[in-house]
Amino acid sequence: MPLENGFKELTRLDDALEDFLKKLNPINRSGIISIEKGKQRVLGKDIIADRNIPHFDRAAMDGFAVRAEDTFGATQSSPVLFNVNDSVGLKKCKRISTGSPVPKNANAIVKIEDAESKNGKVKIFESVSPLENVSEAGEDIKKGEEVFRRGHQLRNEDIGLLRMLGIEDIKVFDKPKVGIIPTGEEVIPPGSKPDKGEVIESNSIILKLMVKQWGGVPFIEEIIEDNPSKIGEAIKSNLKKDIITLIGGSSVGDRDHAYEVIDDIGTIYTHGTAIKPGKPVILGEAEDTPILGLPGYPAANIITSILFLRPVLRKIGRMKQKPMRTIGAKLDQKIHSPLGFKTYTRVKVEDGIAKHIRTSGSGVLSSITKSDGFIVIDEDTEGLNPGSLVEVNLFE
Question: In CATH, what number is assigned to the domain containing residue 40?
Fold first, then answer.
């Protein structure tokens, strides 16, 4: 049944999100891809090295390959004399470059700066120990070593190591599929000319781009009018997706039907969170598919997508939760915040100063485009004073 007298209660963000994430099951589908496409993908099986890296003993310095014991006693005042040769033996050394294989019989490298070469002879001024300046076979990776575990999210350097191991194809978990359902009588498709009371639908393209950036695969549905039956049909048609996001209709007004529809199809865990902007958030599920009802106002939609959809997508996609990138700054003016609400205030940072853009106005998209990020004011704080040191969460 729809709620007629506002929200039953407002849940703290941390409590709502923690409870919701515990209910989610990560993806199990997987496939084989080329390592060229592996950046940020999550491994579907352990990677075990089938070879040593390097697979031979190599010089770690430019210099001379020697038998270490032949250098013992060498000093600046009493160098040991060697013959430069193509092989290494008693008082015979070989010129060698960094990364080259250590010659037979050699077990150390004398650095070039510790030697003096002239007319086929070399004076060694520093003694070396066995294996000094030598990178042994397997020093980087040993054969049989577990290189990466199942569930590891690949970075650029990881892919380079896979290539060194001779691996060109990898098993990875599928990217989460995210159904995006925009709703509202007042929103019209792109390319249309809005009349009074109408706006061009823009939330879905922003959400699509964020989902791609966060490692998901977005699917945008056509705009659904404020009709419970049609909203329900759109949700049911997306239940094979890994996540469903419903844009708009999540509040408690006459045209807000998301609550009653999700409640009828599945289960609602949270309706209404103690945050600004973004209070009318719905967290629920149907047939084990998580459903997020997000506000239709653009600024609130972006903020709640970052706060809720991003961690949900990472949990479903088996990715580690990743904090936003932050920078420190000083606040330029006093900012008020209502007690009991966690407030996300947009700011622009210039020369280490965080300049307040706008706290209220969840429909004002320019409050996002003009800002570099947001600061968080906790529920138990009524605001921040000028000069306060703040941490700015940067928009990606």
Answer: 3.90.105.10
Q: What gap in Å lies between CA 119 and CA 264, rounded to an integer? A: 92
Pair 361, 336: CB distance under 8 Å: no
For the record, the structure tokens of 90 come out as 């008693």
Helices and strands (H, E) in the chain, number of each type: 8, 28
For strand 146-148 and strand 63-66, is the pairing parallel, antiparallel, or unpaired?
Answer: unpaired
- Each residue's pLDDT tens digit, 107-157: 999 999 999 999 999 999 999 999 999 999 999 999 999 999 999 999 999
Let me know whether 281 and 303 are in one domain: yes
- CB-based contact 133:109 (threshold 8 Å): yes
Query: Collapsing DSSP states into helix, strand and coil, what is residue 304?
Result: helix
Instruction: Tell me which of 73, 108, 135 is where a domain ends.
Output: 135
For residue 101, being part of any structural domain is answered with yes
Residue matched to tokens 């990466």: 148
Identity of the amino acid at 92: K
Whether residue 263 contacts residue 219, with contact meaning beta carbons closer than 8 Å, is answered with no
Q: Quick: pLDDT tens for 287-304.
A: 999 999 999 999 999 999
User: What domain range includes position 345?
Assistant: 326-394
CA-based radius of gyration for the chain: 31
